[in-house]
Design brief:
This protein is mainly β. The chain contains 1 helix and 10 strands; from the N terminus they run E-E-E-E-H-E-E-E-E-E-E. A hairpin with a 4-residue loop joins strand 6 and strand 7.
Length: 150
């Protein structure tokens, strides 16, 4: 609804979530998800036992005056939005010994992977860190066929 109006403007469907209603995690947020200066919305889909929190996201479309689903952003777990760098960061964990950070940027209205850093604990207790770049639809070790920046 628009402020001062009882008329329904838009209903967001597909909200079959286990969104928390209390605690440290805000269930529903208004924030600029794509750095266009307009408030978008996101809602926690569920709170898993681990750190990889899934969200449902909608970007505000100025032309239609409505919020449009952002499925590419739904695929990014635990997103952090850095307006100064104009990037979206995902800190994730894949088991007890492997974790990493993926970075994304908005290019022509699409969320595009930029880089990945992984850290994995070895038997000796030391961590191995690896850097990757996105190229031809997948992650490749840095320096091996890295795509040219767009």
């Amino acid at each position: 609804r628009r402020k001062g109006s009882a008329e329904l403007l838009q209903r967001l469907d597909g909200l079959d979530t286990q969104t928390p209603s209390a605690g440290d995690a805000p269930g529903l947020e208004q924030r600029d998800l794509d750095f266009d200066g307009l408030a978008d919305i996101r809602i926690i889909e569920s709170l898993p036992a681990g750190p990889n929190v899934p969200y449902r996201n909608w970007r505000y479309d100025r032309e239609s005056g409505r919020f449009l689903a952002a499925p590419e952003l739904d695929e990014v777990t635990s997103p952090v939005f850095d307006a100064q760098r104009r990037e979206v960061r995902s800190d994730w964990r894949d088991g007890a010994t492997r974790y990493g950070t993926d970075t994304f940027a908005w290019r022509e209205g699409r969320l595009v992977p930029q880089g990945r850093v992984t850290r994995e604990a070895g038997d000796s207790g030391k961590f191995t860190q690896r850097r990757y770049a996105w190229s031809a639809g997948g992650w490749v070790p840095e320096g091996q066929g890295r795509a040219k920046p767009r």
